[in-house]
Amino acid sequence: MITKRNVLVVSFALFSLFFGAGNLILPPQLGFKSGDTWWLVTLGFCLSAVLIPIFGILAHAKLQGTMFDFAKKVSPTFSLVYCYLVYAISISLPSPRTASVTHEMGIEPFFGSPSLLTSIIYFILVFVFVINRSKILDIVGKLLTPAVIIILVCIIAQAIFGFEFNFGVSQFDSPFTSGILEGYQTFDAIGAVVVGGVIIISINLKNDKIPYEQKKKAIAKAGLFSGLGLFLIYTGLVLTGALMHNEFDSDISRTALLSGLSLKTLGNTANILLSILVSLACFTTAVGIVAGTADFVKGRFQNSKNAYLITSIVGCVLGILMGQFDVHYIIAVAVPALMFIYPITIVLILLNVVPDKFASQRVFRWVVVATIVFSIPDFLGSVGLGESIAGFANWIPLSQFQMGWVLPALIAFLIANTKSK
């Protein structure tokens, strides 16, 4: 039987596996730049960084399978290509970024050691945790996540009660959509699809005799609890950044801003607390990504232990190679990949959440094809080729917000369901 305590542990695990490097450094700068529109930015950010990821967990609870099941209604070949692409992006960008953030905020200020050394030690530890994957839920849920929450609450509470509610002028032309697009950089929608599989497998290992419906409800509850926690923390971090709009230079970097916020709120103990926070939040995310990738490859090779081991090694080696670059560089490199893969991931999550009668094979195919086609202008714009198709892109609704795929995907969904009936 799955108890309330089990649900709480899974909730903590989900929260911690979601709350990684991007989640830590992105909200404060959003608030810093948003001025009195901080609440609009927060809503946009939480739409793509909380609501969609939680839908991803609900989809996993419904499917009770692997990431391959998310796109198999389009076609098995498409699903396989999509899975390999997502996992390749995951271990090449968000996973290494956790090491880069840890180095810039938790290692370099104290020791001045090279980033390559940090990446090597960091991913050796990641490898140890991934190989001992049966203990992931216990270690993450019981020990690491509560410590992360306590430190964050201290920073946010000190900012709210210690600073005047005085906001500057927003630097965003469209605060809501700016928040949505910044939420892409958390990789949380992708994380839900990837990490959700880790949670499902971990629960099944310990509760293999529990009925499907009971496990589904437990996972859904855990997803909702973790989503509420993420929403509250994100809102607090955005508000904290907004309250300190006069405390730092306007061009301050994400990592420097977070360090500054900690110094302003927690004083002399800030550096130690912040280094712990970064280490915990980033490390747990990296473990989840590498373990999820290894699980998928293991499943594709008939549950081969060697496949799991080799994939874990490859993921950690890629982490070492990319993790030695600075955070700004990794974020810039990630933009084109996100502009293409994120819309596809979002529609797949939503299609797997809606009732089956509205998500036939035809609906999946039409919506995904429309999303891919109308994501191309945003992708080309992100690599500097937007001018070549500006005439076409200007005719697409919401293209000025880099969200031209939304309306075509919705229209495809409605037409496909009409034809099916």
From TrEMBL:
Keyword entries, A-Z: Amino-acid transport, Cell membrane, Membrane, Transmembrane, Transmembrane helix, Transport
Provide the topology term for how it sits in the membrane: Multi-pass membrane protein
Where does the protein end up? Cell membrane
Cross-referenced Gene3D superfamilies, in alphabetical order? Amino acid/polyamine transporter I
The answer to whether UniProt assigns keyword NADP to this entry is no
Enumerate the transmembrane spans. Answer: 7-26, 38-58, 70-90, 110-131, 143-163, 183-203, 224-244, 272-294, 306-323, 329-351, 363-383, 395-416
Main location as per UniProt: membrane
Record's keyword annotation contains Lipid biosynthesis: no
Question: What does the sequence similarity comment in the record state about its family?
Answer: Belongs to the branched chain amino acid transporter family.
Q: Which NCBIfam families match?
A: livcs
| Name this polypeptide is given | Branched-chain amino acid transport system II carrier protein
Q: Source species, please? A: Croceitalea rosinachiae
